[in-house]
Please model this.
Amino acid sequence: MALLVLGIALLLLVVSVRLMRGRDLPVYAQTLLRGKAHYLCAGILLGVGFSSDLEGTHVLQHAQISLMSLLILWLGLELGIQMEFRMLKKIPARLLIFGAAQSAVTFLLTLTITVFFLPRLARHLLEGADPFVLASMLSVAASVTAPWAQEPPRHPPVAPETDAYPPPHIPGNAVSILLFGCISTLLIDHPPISIANRVFFQSTDALFLSAAIGAGTGILLDTALRVEPAPVKAGYLTVALTAAAGGLCVALDLPALFVGLLAGGWLMNVTLRRRDVQTFSERIHPVMESLFLLVAGSMIGVRTSDSPLNVQGMASLAMLLFVSRAIARTLGVGLLWRLLGPSSADRPFAGTWLLPQGSLAIAVCVQPLFVAWEGPMQAVTIIGGTAIAVALSQAVVSTFPRSSA
Amino acid sequence: MRNLILFTCVVALAVLIQRGPSPVVEPTCYVGLLSVLAYFAGKLCQRLGLPVETGYVGVGVAARGFGVLPGRLFTMFDPLVAMALGWIGFGIGCEVGGMRDRWRPSHLSLALFGTLLPCLCAGLILKTLAGLPLAVALALGVAASLSGPVLTFVAPDHLPETTLVTVLCSGVSLLLYAPLTTMSGATLPFLLGVGGACGVALLWAETLVRVEPSLKADTPLIVLLLSMVILLPWTSALLGHSLFLTSLLAGLLTSWRAGLQPRLRRISAPVGRGAGALLLAAFGVQIAIERLPDLPKEVWGIAAIYLGGMIGGKLLGGALVRGQAHPYGRLAGIALLPQGLLLLEIDTQVRQRADLFGGAADTIHAVLTVAALVGSLALPLLDHLLRRVTMTASENYLDRP
Model:
């Protein structure tokens, strides 16, 4: 069965590549491809195909979980690497506040809408899960944005110019992930964490432990970069330390995105090799992001073998997330825009509210997979619903005129 | 000083997270830590004038011996090791395929001599001196004939031709495994294995070749290669063929198209070097050093004969091709390249088909463990010395009018 799926998948890949070569795709399909939705689909297909054989071979199962821990931390690290204070200072203070506040407002408004409608639309999702925690996670997923709508990919990848204007979505995403870190540690009931004969019971302990691991990883990464001048070996050390921290986060049920954000932020603001870090990050991030979506898709695919797919729940969750996000962002950004009243010179920020979601939103919902979501179908429905909402946000944004986006 | 601080931090972290009522057993965490330790061990060896691969294997052995890694984790490294082996095999295949313009009949003759003679030499000596059955003696002979292209790939200062010849040697060695299975009447599994390896390799190569022109960015190609590396161990386990042989063939067939080779090499080489360090460290972890004192004396005797037969046979093979006035013929040291994880692959295959060898499967396993330890730590030193001598000899040869 699995071999058949593999053969069909490869055949489809070859045929689709042949068919698409030289053809103009519709705009929404182009934006979906740019958002790497095809990796998610390929992952689901592979997961479904191999689910029957996964019980016998532990190879792929271990690889799936191990890879995911590394990849989630990388997404956080990548965001942290963009948090260079020297660059952020270039942004006018009121716009910085605007960028951060629009995420917080989107989070709060989405939370309000989701808490009200979630028990009515997707009651089955709440079995064994705290509705407020679920709504909070979905709201965080709604408040993060993807940078790709404004930045076309560059081939070959290069480090950004030193005097370039930092992308406007960064402060907002950072606020969202900080919120996510607090929710993951303070609201979700954790089993006791033990490190070096010390047992941590309190949620605040988990928060401080996450912050400590994040800062520690940042320090180790900085030291590693000072030790090794060769870029390839420095990259090897970076990936190795990222894997170590990611594995630690999965083992201790700590939010890897939050840890990665702190580690990346520390590294970028302390290191002497900013340009090397940026170049390396620019080279490796597309691969990591694609792999993340592939593995996330395969996790959905594998779990669907246990019980039938809850299409209705997934669709209702996706619609709830999509609509509530649209309302929250429109209202929130409009309100903030009026309050702060930026000048016409701040045009790069004008379309921030139209930015779609990306892989970071899916990572927010995948991260608590082993802690908060009880059954496999609950996890599949939540991740699948978020993925559909992300795809919708990407497809819809392409229909707006280029000038407004 | 910074090296020491980072090294101490990593070791302390590895030890600390194992303490307490619920120690951390997540493989990714230890893989990351082991990779960092391997880096430092390689760097230390480089400063001491030793080959880096000795450091990589040594740190794995030490990590197991000193309890830096938890015991229950040793088998959990298998998937990552398998993926690393698949990637390296593919990278070596690409490299060798890219050198096809340099292929000469003398390379094949060198590979054949360098493989057949150690196999026969070690096998016959083991049969005569240790009184082992012919199938068992030849199984050890095949293991003895393996060379270590993995190490050649990791060490960038090797001659490219050395890589080519060692890859050919390993290919011949892996194919030599055929008579062992056919001798016991198990022709079908062997044919299925070889057929499966060729089929899977051809499938991947054809996919890569057809899809690659449409993939302008490197990212999708890397993801496709990684998918291949993740899926290869699974297909090899399912069809019972050699993972390394399959990935090697896939790389060879893919890079046969001239336009593809530079791009694949650019992608696979940096990852391959990192994967090589991890692979060798994980290989060191898999050597059960704590069980060595409990081994019976006969096993040590057989292991000594095995190593003697291996080195003697390979030197003999190298000496025979010297007559061709070939600069690489002087590189009898190809014979001394440590065998790396390929040895464990043969060991795995022997254990999987233990019925073919009767009660001797355990003996083979013990002998191969000893040989792996000695071969990985001592032979690189010997190889290093010999390489320096032979490199000088080759340079003199090339410089002469």
Remarks:
- Chain B has one domain: 80-391.
- Chain B is about 75% helix and 0% strand.
- The radius of gyration of chain B is 21 Å.
- The CA atoms of residues 255 and 261 of chain B lie 5 Å apart.
